[in-house]
Specification:
This protein has 513 residues and is mainly beta. The chain folds into 2 domains: 367 residues, 7 Propeller (Methylamine Dehydrogenase, Chain H), CATH 2.130.10.10; 71 residues, Immunoglobulin-like. The protein is built from 4 helices and 38 strands. The N terminus is likely disordered.
């Protein structure tokens, strides 16, 4: 049989089959079937079943990295509503002390998104709380006593939204949430700070008559916030931290200390008595661009500051300033750390001996601060995850903020232009004994109209969850402790499902009951 004959026959066969399907397209039955197929395909395209992407040879998938693995990613198109051109801003977290579940609370330009990240490889978007007054680039969040407190800037009469996070318990599908309370004593505010020891919120950078200084709000009863006054003397605070001081300066131990990043200086205030705020000191430093945000070390000895425009104004690499506050009355600049790129630094937070820095186009940078008392080599970069692989330009794109305080070691990152990333330190994901390689998972038969068998050749199956295409758990099996397991599918209808094994790996199963 000649090659030309085979080609001609195949062409004719193709024409016959093609015409057959064209004719079928005109039948209502097939049209309805295709609509269902299209809908399922659409759901598959927006339903992300992740497996961890390890950082290997400096990359985790498309993202440059060092010592941090990608667990999951959720795009802005899922997190935000469709109003305007959505972008991301601040991010914070909450751990439910009753269930030990971990939740990310992500600021969007038009809403606040809530995500269950208890299984970081398979996060669940639970829904959003829409803005109280339109769209804006700035939305900041803090948590106290199981409630989220949310402010927004340059957006009119937004006020402070209060949301009871316990309402997230048991939520399995996307919700449109409403606030439990709204404090209307302010309109727009740039940021919110909470001293959890005292149950007091400090609203800063508010568009009000006090010039943007801190406004004190009693939130001991979260859904009934009440004003405790304000402080106007030192002008606008862009961001701040308030602590019950337990540092080396014995004169001020036990006091409520406010340290504010006030555009062109740092101010240190004693705010113990809200009716008699005392200015302790102020701090200046060379080449001030915009005094943006900072955080104390856990021993309250050092304050680590980011200036948001010094890279642009003076052409330097990412600059982080370290101030010695051994004496709160006479603080001094101890040392300066310069990063490897010219990216702008934004928010930074300390956790034990590490500093987690949001560095816009350079992503999240992690610095070892165990040698912070040194005047010559106070910090060393020990890891990073770059959510903006295009470049490290000196521009306002990439990472806005990072939340590193989950007990599990999960870290959530909000990228302005992309969405939320969940990362974790390399080598802490799974031990060899419980890690399952997805290529070692077998489901047979698949597709199936009989009970399928799940089999793995490494480790043991402890739990199996069967999840519908809409994200609902329809079957769950526990305490299996075996290499294979037969799933009883008699109680579920035909369709596409995902099989999640040991809360880590996921495989698709097609049921034809």
């Amino acid at each position: 049989m000649s090659i030309s004959y085979i080609k001609t026959r195949n062409k004719n066969l193709f024409r016959i089959v093609f015409q057959y399907f064209i004719n079928l397209l005109n039948t209502p039955k097939l049209y309805g079937m295709l609509k269902k197929i299209f809908f399922i395909s659409f759901l598959l395209s927006i339903t992300v079943i992740h497996s961890q992407t390890t950082c290997s040879n400096g990359m985790a998938g498309d993202y440059p990295c060092s010592n941090y693995d990608l667990m999951a990613f959720i795009p802005i198109s899922t997190l935000a509503n469709s109003n305007g051109s959505p972008s991301s801003s601040d991010i914070w977290g909450w751990t439910d002390s009753t269930t030990n579940k971990e939740y990310a609370i992500a600021g969007m330009s038009n809403s606040t998104a809530f995500i269950d990240i208890s299984d970081p490889v398979n996060p669940i978007f639970l829904g959003r709380l829409n803005s109280n007054a339109g769209n804006n680039s700035w939305r900041d969040i803090k948590v106290y006593n199981n409630h989220a407190f949310i402010v927004a800037d340059i957006v009119g009469e937004h006020g402070m939204q209060v949301f009871d996070l316990r309402r997230l318990r048991g939520v399995t599908s996307e919700q449109n949430f409403t606030a439990d309370a709204i404090y209307t004593g302010v309109g727009s505010c740039h940021n919110i700070v909470i001293n959890e020891d005292k149950g007091v919120a400090y609203l800063v950078g508010c568009r009000s008559t006090n010039g943007g200084g801190p406004i004190f709000i009693d939130i001991s009863n979260p859904t009934n916030p009440t004003s405790l006054g304000d402080y106007q003397t030192d002008g606008y605070s862009h961001d701040a931290q308030v602590i019950t001081y337990n540092g080396p300066d014995t004169e001020h131990q036990g006091k409520e200390i406010y340290i504010g990043s006030n555009e062109d200086e740092i101010v240190v205030l004693d705010v113990t008595d809200k009716n008699n705020v005392v200015r302790i000191s102020n701090i200046n430093y060379p080449q001030i661009g915009y005094t943006h945000q900072g955080w104390f070390t856990e021993d309250h000895r050092y304050f680590i500051l980011g200036d948001e425009t010094d890279e642009r104004n003076y052409g330097m690499n990412t600059r982080t300033l370290i101030f010695d506050l051994q004496d709160l009355d006479t603080p001094n600049l101890s040392s300066t750390y310069l990063g490897e790129t010219g990216a702008i630094d934004h928010n930074g937070y300390t956790k034990e001996n590490e500093f987690f820095l949001s560095s816009y186009t350079a992503g999240m940078r992690v610095l070892d601060i165990s040698n912070i008392s040194s005047t010559s080599n106070p910090m060393t970069e020990i890891g990073y995850f770059d959510t903006h692989p295009e470049n490290d330009n000196t521009s306002f794109r990439g990472v806005w903020s990072v939340y590193p305080y989950f007990q599990s070691g999960n870290i959530v990152i909000n990228d302005i232009n992309r969405g939320m990333f969940i990362v974790k330190k390399s080598g802490t994901l799974n031990s060899d004994s419980d890690e399952i390689n997805e290529t070692a998972i077998k489901i047979y038969p698949n597709p199936t109209d009989v009970n399928p068998i799940i089999s793995i050749n490494k480790g043991r199956i402890e739990t199996i969850d069967v999840i519908s295409i809409l994200g609902k758990k329809v079957l769950s099996f526990k305490d299996i402790n075996n290499h294979d397991f037969e799933i009883d599918i008699s109680g579920i209808s035909s369709g596409i499902y995902f099989i999640r094994i040991n809360n880590k790996s996921a495989q698709k199963l097609i049921v034809n009951n």
